[in-house]
Design a protein that fits this description.
It is a single chain. With 334 residues, the protein is an alpha/beta fold. The chain has a single domain, classed as Bacterial extracellular solute-binding protein, family 7 (D-Maltodextrin-Binding Protein, domain 2). It is built from 13 helices and 10 strands. The strands form 2 sheets. Strands 1, 2, 3, 4, 7, 8, 9 and 10 form an 8-stranded mixed beta sheet that branches. Helix 4 crosses helix 13 and helix 12 crosses helix 13. The longest helix is centred in the last third of the chain and has 35 residues. The radius of gyration is 22 Å and the shape is globular.
Length: 334
């Protein structure tokens, strides 16, 4: 009888030990290469999570759209098809039009304004995260991609007249409307399809972030960069909400702290990262053009109809976020 009792106790102990050591694997889908600054930021998150959990939480990163394209990520994470994913914020614009407040031309057009807008708990960030949560995905942290730039072949784009009638790569509805407003023809193209779109002439002008040039080798297919801060490009790292709720309080704490550390690290370095990308572009022989004051005035004037358009499209939340953005601008100007 004692042997039986001992055997039962041993088996129970082994079972409990195995349960304690059971691993939870979190797969993250990323549309960019792992060497991109978003990919490197995920590696930091992975290292922090696995260290803090003693290996109980395992993170697997699938870069370069191996599993899902950017436009597919919100639904994939929200449905639980994958545990985590990185998506451009504008990918939620179909269900939450107000998220495109970051893409209203020249509204949040300085690092200081962006920093204030995306600060945890800010009157712009918090409502956006609340709306995204309703889709079944929780925002763990935000990843900055920098300001928009325009790419062209041979000569840089200097003013609105240089894109009139031309096909322009865009990555969201609001930016597509902006291209139409200034006279171009928007072509919605995912990040992973950019290189071929430029190489094959599917589009004439590219819209992306400076950091995309080295990570996707766009210097091989485009010749010139125009630094026009039309919009701020933000990505969000998502986790399935049902999975999140199933995790222990300790595991949620580990993930939250690792996410906060990853966000702080990438936010502190984004200016430097963009500068490094610009230096790379110049070293590869690309023209990097900064518009004159007169040209910037022309860009702003041509973009003015976008404010009224977004106010209509963004609904009550969109109006609220634009108002908050203007408050931030006023407070920073004091």
């Amino acid at each position: 009888m004692r042997r039986i009792a001992f055997g039962f106790a041993l088996a129970l102990g082994m079972a409990l030990g195995a349960q304690a050591l059971a691993q939870t694997t979190l797969r993250i889908t990323l549309q960019l290469p792992l060497k991109s600054h978003l990919g490197q930021n995920l590696l930091l998150f992975e290292e922090e999570v696995e260290r803090a959990s003693g290996g109980r939480l395992q993170v697997e990163i699938y870069p370069s759209a191996q599993l899902y394209k950017d436009k597919e990520v919100p639904q994939a994470v929200g449905s639980g098809a994958i545990e985590m994913g990185v998506a451009s914020l504008t990918r939620f614009a179909g269900t939450i039009p107000a998220v495109d407040v970051f893409y209203v031309p020249f509204l949040l057009d300085s690092p200081e304004l962006v920093q204030a807008a995306i600060a945890p708990g800010s009157p712009i960030r918090a409502p956006i995260e609340e709306e995204i949560l309703k889709t079944g995905a929780r925002v763990l942290w935000w990843q900055p991609y920098g300001s928009t730039i325009l790419l062209a072949k041979q000569e840089p784009v200097r003013g609105p007249e240089d894109i009139r009638g031309k096909k322009v790569r865009v990555f969201g509805k609001t930016l597509g409307k902006w291209v139409e407003t200034v006279g171009g023809k928007p072509v919605l193209t995912s990040g992973s399809e950019q290189f071929l779109a430029y190489q094959r002439g599917v589009v004439d002008v590219g819209m992306t972030g400076m950091t995309t040039i080295p990570s996707r080798k766009l210097d091989q297919v485009m010749d010139a960069v125009t630094k026009v801060p039309i919009a701020d490009i933000e990505f969000v790292v998502l986790i399935n909400e049902s999975l999140w709720q199933s995790l222990s309080e300790e595991d949620r704490r580990i993930l939250s702290e690792a996410a906060a550390k990853a966000e702080q690290a990438i936010r502190e370095r984004i200016v430097e990262i963009e500068q490094e990308a610009e230096a790379y572009a110049k070293a590869q022989g690309m023209i990097v053009y900064e518009p004159t004051a007169e040209e910037m005035a022309a860009w702003r004037q041509a973009s003015e109809p976008m404010f009224a358009w977004f106010a209509e499209q963004g609904g009550a939340l969109g109006e609220r976020l634009v108002a908050e953005a203007r408050k931030l601008r006023a407070s920073l100007a004091q």
